[in-house]
Known about the structure:
Layout: E1 3-9, E2 23-24, E3 27-28, H1 29-37, E4 44-49, H2 52-60, E5 65-67, H3 75-85, E6 92-95, H4 105-115, E7 122-128, H5 132-136, E8 142-145, E9 151-155, H6 170-173, E10 177-186, H7 190-193, H8 200-205, H9 209-214, E11 219-223, H10 234-241
Parallel strand pairs: 1-4, 1-6, 4-5, 7-11
Antiparallel strand pairs: 2-3, 6-10, 7-10, 8-9, 8-10
Amino acid sequence: MKILGVIPARYASTRFPGKPLAMIKGKPMVQRVYEQASKANLTEVVVATDDDRIAEVVRSFGGNVVMTSPDHPSGTDRCAEAMAKYKSGWDAVINIQGDEPYIHPNQINILAEILQREDVEIGTLIKKISLTEELLNVNTPKVVINEKGEALYFSRQPIPYKKGEEITEWVNRHTYYKHIGIYGYKASVLPKLTLLKQSSLEVAESLEQLRWLENGYRIATGITVEETLAVDTPDDLLKAQSVDL
């Protein structure tokens, strides 16, 4: 199977303009993501950007880059354009977050293995929640799955509600999962996702993947035990600088 790893990288950001070029221990963040992704079992890796400054930096360290529209509303849309423009013959695409400089190659590999299955349309990762603080954090999307490991629903609220139990005991009485924001798509499915209109659940929760569920697409999940570190703000960058390589 030919799998293309796409790293969407925008220069514009409300909270952190120029984030992909932020330096982390001597290398721009986009390079660190690229190098980690290149260790995974992918056919090729490419950075999809709308900014010449990012493209120039990627080329300077020998990376692949494809220019995409500045008007894409999501990374999924940018991945679809990148797949269409960058070579051909892809069987699947993995959308690798450009703000996770220490992403584990094994996490990408788990997703790549999921995409090998004929019945899979879309794949993503989940991780068990062990702390009440994390369960109650609205910035940490939660997910419930069926017996096949397919996502039933995503929410910013804890789901399911554990009736008759103190909320501080929920994580000890049920297995809760949080969503890890990396996606894989079959090449035949990805362009179709970009044609879907925003759904009511997506708008309510501000979670793009709910649009896919509302339109009947299945999302397979893989469990990871590894934590990720996303750089969304300059404060997050300081945390990233303190990570031992």
